[in-house]
Amino acid sequence: MTNLKKGDRVINLLAKDWGIGQVLKNIHGNNFSIFFTALGPKKIVNSDKLQLVTGKKANSIILDNLFIPQKKEMNYISIADSVKLFLARYPQGFNDPEYLRDERNYKHKTHKHAVKLLSEKNFSELLKKKEYAEICARALKIMTFKPKEDHKMNLLYSYGELIPLQYGLKEIPNQKPFAKNLFYLLYGAADELEDRFDQFCDVLATLKANKWPIATFFLFIMFPDNYMIIRPTPTREAAKLCAFEINYEANTNFKTFDQVIKFSNYLKVELSNLKPRDMIDVQSFMWCIKDDKKTTLKP
Q: How far lies 211's CA from each of 180, 218, 245, 267, in Å?
């Protein structure tokens, strides 16, 4: 098939286990560079065995959001190989005792602590009483919470993230807008998410604390079924390994946040055999696959 063009989706009739492929470019004549979902980028020197796919058969969330580096070679790892990496470290998956100790338990305990301090009912009552200082104090307690096993919280870093926020919230004029916009972020209407997120980031900017981990922490820790925290380096590395475009920008913005949620949901679906409970498991999986220093695939 020589009339393929960039963006066309195909399958290799001799290797259907490569998954759906998307034509990246025509190298020369009948030779193409194609990204296959289960393989990554592949040079095809003879396209006669390629079959064009269209309609529902061509649907692929990873190809719809495909990340192709402009200068460097793609360091792609398929979901199957990512799972192997994860299971090499934690053989029992998301129920492995070491995984629970290393990754999940302290995050889930922080979630329960957060819900206890800032449930919608408690938060609403504090707002009615204009207890803005108390709301700010509770927010900071959640961010610095240490579970009973004294596991170090690694979702937020003090220098450059927590400390600016702590200093900013000492100023009384900053407490009301922070409290009100945090409530709006957490409990506003679902169809207002972009506005909720943008307004909260605006408040963080006035506090000189508008960093991705701070901006996304509360949604993640309060509602781990639906939202993801963004730690720039591991999130970007995991997305690149999965070839998923998250439109990352250093400055907080809803477009990037929305794409990270899509990426996280994609991973949750692809990991269904491991039965992830929520985004805590997905976030932990992302953290593990980006770290190739401790675990490598056996040949």
A: 19, 13, 20, 24
Helices (H), the chain: 61-64, 79-89, 97-99, 105-118, 120-128, 132-143, 163-168, 172-187, 193-206, 212-222, 232-241, 254-270, 279-290
**Helix and strand element counts for the chain (H, E):** 13, 5
| Beta partners for residue 34, in sequence order | 23, 42
CA distance 270 to 276: 10
Q: Which candidate, 224, 207, 117, 103, places its Cα nearest to that of 162?
A: 207
CB atoms within 10 A of CB 246: 24
pLDDT tens digit string along 17-55? Answer: 999 999 998 877 778 999 999 999 999 987 788 999 999
- What's the angle, vertex CA 248, arms to CA 242 and CA 253, rounded to 5? 135
Which strands make up the sheet holding 50-52, listed edge to edge?
40-44, 31-36, 21-28, 9-12, 50-52
Phi, psi of 52 (to 5 degrees): -65, 135
Do residues 38 and 60 make contact, with C-beta atoms less than 8 angstroms apart? no
What is the pTM (predicted TM-score) of this model? 0.90
Q: Taking all residues of the chain, what is their mean pLDDT, rounded to a whole number?
A: 91
One-letter amino acid at 18 equals W
Domain boundaries, the chain: 9-62, 80-290
From 54, 48, 44, select the one nearest 23 (Cα to Cα).
44
* DSSP-assigned beta bridge partners for residue 22: 9, 35
- Cα separation, 187 vs 254, in Å, equals 17
59-108 confidence digits (pLDDT tens): 999 999 999 877 666 778 889 999 999 999 999 999 999 999 999 999 99
Nearest to 47 by CA among 15, 12, 6: 12
